[in-house]
Amino acid sequence: MALCLALAGLGTLAGCAPLVIGGAAATTASVATDRRTAGEQLEDKTIQIKISNDLAKMLENRGRTNVVSYAGRVLLLGDVPTEADKQQAEEIASKVEHVRQVYNQIRVGDITPLSVRSNDTWLTTKVTSALINTQGVPTRTISVTTERGIVYLMGKLTSTEAQIAAKAASGVSGVNKVVTLFDIVSPESVAGNSGQAAPVTSVPTTSSNHMSEPTPDSAEVQAIPVQ
């Protein structure tokens, strides 16, 4: 997300410690508050490490990639020199065990300058803080990652939580766009603070849903359906 994607690039965050900002690994909250199962959390860490290592071998310093995994759904970010490299990166990621879906957001072009990546890290911090300070947002189960001013949010949220989180992130100064990759779960599955949610059919959300009352300075919100 996450949703701490990394996203210099994907920064993931889970609202509270442990929090990794600007790294390649997705942030994982404690089992008690993360709606992923303990097994999913372990698998996500393994997936990130495996794909990151495989992509580093493939590129041999010709590019930069950032990998975030949430419940087996993998977000690929970074910069590679050719479209063929981008497609190969996706193929590599899709073949890793326990990967359910790959979102290939890698950019074809020169490596993003350090100054931009440093700003991404700062934006991740600001978005994280905004989510923590927004009522109704379960930050410990959200991964936050930023790449070239675009904030990616991942997590298991109810439809209402997803709308609130996206709106809060879009209102952070400096954010160019918010991309949500939320797995929408039922309110019943998270009732009683059980700590884990049973996924239901993912409901694609739209920009208009997330931004029902946009402010003049709000960033665009794009929802990518989760399968």
TrEMBL record:
Protein name, UniProt field: BON domain-containing protein
- Region span, Disordered: 190-227
* Polar residues compositional bias, start-end: 202-212
The BON domain covers 43-110, 119-186
User: Domain of life here?
Assistant: Bacteria
- What is the residue range of the signal peptide feature? 1-17
| Organism in which the protein naturally occurs | Mesopusillimonas faecipullorum
Which keywords annotate this record?
Signal
Q: Which Pfam families match?
A: BON
> What InterPro entries does this protein map onto?
BON_dom, Lipoprotein_DolP, Transpt-assoc_nodulatn_dom_bac
